[in-house]
Amino acid sequence: LRSAYVASNPKSSECYQAATKVMPGGNTRSVLFYEPFPLAISRGEGSRLWDADNHEYTDLLGEFTAGLYGHSHPEIRKAINAALDGGINLTGHNLLEPRLAELVSKRFPSVEKLRFANSGTEANLLAIAAAKRFTNRSKVMVFKGGYHGGVLTFAAGPSPINVPHDFVIGSYNDIPGTTALVNEHAADLAAIVVEPMQGAGGCIVGQPEFLEALRKLATEAGALLIFDEVMTSRLAPGGRQSQLGITPDMTTLGKYIGGGMSFGAFGGREDIMALFDPRTPGHLGHAGTFNNNVLSMSAGIAGLSRIYTPEVAVQLNARGDALRERLNASCSAHGAQLQFTGLGSLMNLHGVSSEILRCDDIPASEGIVKDLFFFHMLQHGFYVARRGFIVLSLPLTDSDLDRFCNAFEEFLKRYTKALA
Ligand code: PMP
C-alpha cells in the first residue's frame, strides 16, 4: 500500500519536499503530517477534494469537524460575499457580532452570555482564565486523553507545548478515581474541564453517569464545570449537554459554528461572564484583532440560521449513528477485532473490539490497523484522518456512504487474516 501511495503521488511528494524548505515538516499543523509524506490538497468542492496529482477524494474528515458545510456551500459563499461587500477589518463593534451571539446563546441555553475568539484553543484558555478569576483558585482538572487545543493537550501524540496551568489530571469515565482526586484538591480547584466525548483522544464517549458525577463534584467543591463542546456541539441542536440534560457553568465552542472560518467562542453563566464587562473596574481584558471579524460572523450566522437548523442536526447525526452501526456490523460479520466508537456524525476506528472507556483501553499496537485503513481508504478515494477519525459533513450523500461501507468491507476482506 505504501509503495503504491508513493508511486501514485509524485506531485504531492514534490510539494512536500519544497514546503519543508520553508516550514519544519512542510506545514503549520502537526496533525496533518504523516509518513511517507502527506498529500498536497489543491482544491475542494461540496464533499470532494482533489490533490496535486489530481486524484479525487470523498471527504470524510471535513476539516476535523469544522467543515460541516462542505467546501462550497452556496449560503456560506453568499454570506462571505455579503461581508466582503460591506468591507472587512471594520475596527469597531459591528452589526453581525450580536446576531451570531444571539443565535449561539439560543442554541445552547447554558451559554447566557458569550464572547468570540479565533480558535477553540483560545476559547478554552479564556474559559479557564475566567474560572480561575471567578473562584480565586488555581488548579484545573482535566482528563488523560483529553484535547482542548494545541497548548492544552493531554492525549497521546507529540510533546505538548502546554500552558503552565496547575493541572490535576483525572482518569476519564472513572467516577471513584475522579471523586477522590476532586476531594483531594477541592479547596484549590477552579475548574473541571471536560469533553463530553473525547474527540482527538479517539471518540471515547463520556458515560452520562460520569458527566453527571462531574456536575455534582464541581458544585460541591465550588469549582466551575466547563464543557469543551468544540467538537461535540454538532451532535444535537443544543450540543451534547442538551442530550445529557447537564448544564455546565461554562461551555467552549469552535469549529463549524464560524461557518468554516476561523472561530472560537466561550460563554456560560451571566455572573461569570460579567468578569469580561469593560464597564466593571478590575474586569478581565479579552483582546483579539480578529475576534469579531465579519467573515466568520457572517458565515456563522448563515450556517446556524439557514443551514444547520435543529432538524438538519438531528438528521445528520442519525445518519452517522446508522453508518457507525453498519460499519460495526461488518466488523462483527468478519470476526475482526475492530470497532468504531463515537456518537452521531463523529466516529473513530480502533483495533480492539472490547469496550473503550478511556485512552488506556486503546492498545498502542492499533497503529498498524489504522495505517492499513488509512492507505486502503485513500486508494479507494476516501479522505479520512490518519488516526482513523471519520466525520460526516452535510454534502455527503447516502450513495457516498454506501460506497464508503463497500470500501470498508473490502478492507475487512483483504486484511482480516493479516490483522488476526
Ligand atoms: N477542543 C476540542 C475538543 C477540539 O477538538 C479542538 C480542535 N480539534 C480544540 C479544542 C481546539 O480548537 P482549535 O483547533 O480551533 O484551536
Indicate the topology.
Elements: H1 2-8, H2 10-19, E1 41-45, E2 48-51, E3 56-59, H3 74-85, H4 96-107, E4 113-117, H5 120-135, E5 139-143, E6 166-170, H6 175-185, E7 189-194, E8 197-198, E9 204-205, H7 208-221, E10 224-228, H8 239-244, E11 250-254, E12 264-268, H9 270-273, H10 294-307, H11 310-333, E13 339-343, E14 346-350, H12 367-379, E15 382-383, E16 389-391, H13 398-419
Parallel strand pairs: 3-15, 5-6, 5-7, 7-10, 10-11
Antiparallel strand pairs: 1-2, 2-3, 4-12, 8-9, 11-12, 13-14, 14-16
Bound molecules: 4'-deoxy-4'-aminopyridoxal-5'-phosphate.
4'-deoxy-4'-aminopyridoxal-5'-phosphate binds at residues 64, 119-121, 124, 147-149, 195, 199-200, 228, 230-231, 254, 264.
List keywords for this structure.
420 residues, binds 4'-deoxy-4'-aminopyridoxal-5'-phosphate, PyrdxlP-dep_Trfase, four-stranded mixed β-sheet, Aspartate Aminotransferase, domain 2, alpha/beta, globular, single chain, glutamate-1-semialdehyde 2,1-aminomutase activity, Aminotrans_3, seven-stranded mixed β-sheet, isomerase, 16 strands, PyrdxlP-dep_Trfase_small
Spatial arrangement of strands, main beta sheet:
4-12-11-10-7-5-6
- The CATH superfamily of the domain at 74-307 is known as Type I PLP-dependent aspartate aminotransferase-like (Major domain)
CATH topology of the domain at 74-307: Aspartate Aminotransferase, domain 2
Described by its quaternary structure, the protein is single chain
Strand content: 15-25%
CATH architecture type of the domain at 74-307: 3-Layer(aba) Sandwich
Q: Which ligands does the model contain, each kind named once?
A: 4'-deoxy-4'-aminopyridoxal-5'-phosphate
Beta strands, count:
16
CATH classification, class level of the domain at 74-307: Alpha Beta
Mind telling me the C-alpha Rg?
A: 21 Å
What is the H/E order? HHEEEHHEHEEHEEEHEHEEHHHEEHEEH
Structural class, judged by helices and strands? Answer: alpha/beta
Number of helices: 13
Q: Major β-sheet, in short? A: 7 strands, mixed
What level of helicity do the residues show?
25-40%
Distance between the termini: 19 Å
Principal-axes shape call: globular
Low-confidence stretches are: none
